[in-house]
Amino acid sequence: MKDLTQCVITPDVDMDGFETLGAATYRGSTIVFKNAEAYRTRGERGHQGYTYGLYGTPTTRTLEAKLTALEMGVRTFLVPSGQASNSVAMLSFLSTGDRILIADNSYPPVRDFANRDLARFGIEVAYYDPVAIDDLERQIDGRTKIVWCESPGSTTMEIQDLPRIAQIAHRHGALVGCDNTWATPLNYKPLTLGADIVTEALTKYVSGHSDVLMGSITVRAEEHIVPLRATLGRLGIGVSPDDATLVLRGMETLGVRLRHAAEGAAEIIALIQHHPLVEQVLYPSLVDFPGHDIWKRDFLGVSGVFSVVLKPEASKHAAAALDVLRTFAIGASWGGTRSLIAPMPVKQNRSASQWHGEDLVLRVSIGLEDLDDLKADIEAFLADIAERSAPAKVSKAS
Prior knowledge:
There is one protein chain. The chain has helices spanning 3-8, 36-40, 58-71, 82-93, 108-120, 133-139, 162-171, 184-187, 225-235, 241-251, 254-272, 292-298, 312-315, 318-321, 371-389; strands at 75-79, 99-103, 124-128, 144-150, 175-179, 197-201, 215-219, 278-282, 305-310, 329-330, 340-345, 360-365. By secondary structure, the protein is of the alpha/beta class. It is globular. The chain starts with a helix and ends in a 9-residue tail after the last helix. Residues 393-398 have low confidence and may be disordered.
């Protein structure tokens, strides 16, 4: 070969005896074939075969295989974000004239996507009370193709009775999808409880370091593989193998991070639960939390994310008091090493159920910092709110 050719062609290197613990990062858009016959029959490779980089590399397939095993499904697909996993899952199984029923406490971008885009495609969108089985029974019909769940619900943490929901949905010929980002597949396995599709925002706990965006869709049955794979291909959606490597590396510590975060959450909750400015802590493992019995029956544990409802006189000062925080960061995501607090409005994202508490709810994600520093931050935060809430002192003239 001439020099320029040797610059371009990658030589085969003997890999015998080279074993590492980490997954290799395989980058590739073009997939080449050994001969003309292999190229001609490339479509016969099946959904696990390699034909083009958009449909996966050994790196992304490694991550998919790990997730499939944890979710107890048959195949996982990777997409660029958690919201993409929700929207692609819906698009793959809905057509004009179909109907989707969405839990009223779902992630707000799911609601926005459904109201704007699914409706634009001629798909009827309706919402059901996430904890009222009779409301689901009343609304479901033969046109309903998907019942969408999120348990615990976004911000307000309602626990859904997934086995009963699945029984009703399947009786009407509908699929059940479930966003499982809060619990991760370590603490909840929706596919074993009747769901057909489970989505994860790998951006959060699974990657765990707040530096990568990715989502996953895992299905329970072989028949659901082709519709998803075809939709991803037509839309041209794939993920970077470099990002997949970051998720794979973060995933190795998922178990210890989740355990640490859950233990930290328990301590912070114990510190604030009975504070005079706190109306309620929303966290499924608390024995007085509505849905606790279902959580205890179906879940394997908790994460480090919970919500706090302040009393009316305190709630209006919460946003300003966030500026006293030194260890907690103010941010809308969660599941990383850094602890976060974000004020979240609730009522604007409800239509099928009523939220009776304060509209502003504080969502808290416990990270990996020293608990004494986190406790000091929370105490300073509540003290600042108390000072702002106190009646103004009127000085008397001497």
